[in-house]
Design a protein that fits this description.
Order of helices and strands of chain A: HHEHEHHEHHEHEEHEHEHEHH
Strand content of chain A: 5-15%
Oligomer: heterodimer
Strand content of chain B: 15-25%
Number of domains of chain A: 1
Structural class of chain B: alpha/beta
Number of strands of chain A: 9
Strand order of the largest sheet of chain A: 5-4-3-2-1-9-8-7-6
CATH architecture of chain A: Alpha-Beta Barrel
Number of helices of chain B: 16
Radius of gyration of chain A: 17 Å
Shape of chain B: globular
Largest sheet of chain B: 6 strands, mixed
Amino acid sequence: MQPLISTKMSRIKNLFKKLKNERKKAFIPYIVAGDGGLDFSLTVMTELVQNGADIIELGVPFSDPMADGSIISYAHKRALSNNTKLINVLNLIKKFRTINQHTPIILMGYLNPLESMGYQKFANLSGDAGVDGVLMVDMPPEESSQLQKYLQEKQIDIIFLITLTSTKKRIQKICNKASGFIYFVSIKGITGEKISDEIAIEEKIKQIKKTTALPIAIGFGIKNANDAKNMAQYADAVVVGSSLVKFFDTTDQQKILQQIRKLSMQIREAT
Amino acid sequence: MDYKNIIDTTGHFGNFGGSFVAETLTQPLDELKNAYQKYKNDKSFIKEFKNELKHYVGRPSPLYYAKNLTKKIGGAKIYLKREDLNHTGAHKINNTIGQILLAKKMGKTRIIAETGAGQHGVATATVASRANLECVVYMGEEDIKRQAVNVYRMKLLGAKVVPVKSGSKTLKDALNEAMKDWVSNIDNTFYIIGTVAGPHPYPQMVRDFQKIIGEEAKEQIMEQEKILPYAIIACVGGGSNAMGLFYEFLNDKETKIIGVEAGGRGLETGQHAAPICAGKIGVLHGNRTYLMSDENGQIIETHSISAGLDYPGVGPELSCLAHLKRVKFTSINDDEAVRAFFDLTKYEGIIPALESSHAIAYAMQYAKKLDKDKIIIVNLSGRGDKDIHTIAELKGIKI
């Protein structure tokens, strides 16, 4: 089934509008697709939504996840050992869309699987599957024009990172190209490290807000409800990755679901 | 066409190269780019660099006519560019000398590097020790095993060698970990990449620090033979020794240029490290280039007997030169390289690195087909001391 373009176009926008009215912040959990198998991913996605997830960020497995710490790197490895291909991830989203039409899905990953599939085919299949946004870690705005063109044709947002090291000029450049929301990286480092410089974060986000009206999500260092609550005061959304992905390091799927439910609810309440 | 100036202002060589990195690295890469732009034409920087190469590295390295080998083969005259005679035993030191000068100018206090065969690690540890800077070298666990001597050399030089246990536990994974380290320590850390790959400006910068090889070779062959070579040959892993030799000859139409990739157990087995000969275009480690990747875009594990060639990518400028057909690429299998290792040792009393043995092996096959008045230059990029354990093991000898 192909979702109507009009509903899809507004999924991310509508969500942030709605949350703003409710004076709430978005909770964005991250999992790697195929970690524990694709069927399990579907179960996890459903559970996440039931326990307060507003947007789901789905990692596309890659052999060399260069911006990820060991927890998420292992998840990529597990997903690949389950033979999870990009096409399978897109089919997973298609399946999810048959039961959920309102939760935005963001694909996060590295460029080479897209290069291999071809940008146009990727954009078309993503559009058909019901993908709302694409964030490629190793694709800065300078290298994004081709992919962006195809994604725009399918009304898929292209999401860029802004970091503590991004200069004012660069923030301007990124905001000019970005759509959906801005993903702000709260640490100078890889996923799973600790937030250390809150003052710098606050400063940088102020700068971003001056430049764009797009919502801002913070991620890379948020481990628990406390961090989430703390970071939510600066932004419109918090992304939690490593702390959730770490639960997947077992074959006991009931236990994984239990832990995910618990942490999700805690974060939901805190934001 | 001017093959020496393919690069555009943002680091693309045609469709290849570029800067495919996470946002955190954009700022330090800009900082590096600006520093490099500033110093690459700075007279005192160039003077210092050249001075170091002369008095510390021992340049110029000789261009040696391999008379016995030539006679044995009975074809074209084979000349060897003796990068094996450089301090630390390979061409790698040319680049680390350049980058450490830059690091000091930029006020960085910590040096990191990745290494495969250990030659770049040793060359980095060497310059860092002299500059009195902290040095951390990432090295795959598999490579640590096969290059134990170099690991100990790095330690002697005061570097910390971090074993990398992810993926194939070789050069590719060492690069991943070094990148992660850099992202986490950008304020004080300078990342000395050892090859002509990575995000802009590394491919250009490393080439510029290595191009002295070809500049010298050209001068030397003109002096000795009064004619440009018919062909020049180098092994290609990431491609720094190759770009180093090739660059100066790129616009000399009469000279054929040949890159030799690692054929491993044979291209048909899939167990090799020959992305240009048998790979496809993709994005890895900050640049678009030929890669060893499967149909789903996952990087596949490579194999080569030589740790320095055991890498799934190749410098983007070489990919572009292959695409433009200016450089021809071929491959040499493990066993052919080993045979060349023994031949050069026997006929010339030179023990070559297993990496360089690939270039020697192809040069021997190629020279045989050519007339005796033709000249070929082979880059003998490194010496083989580090490989004697691998060779001894092949022969069932324990040393």
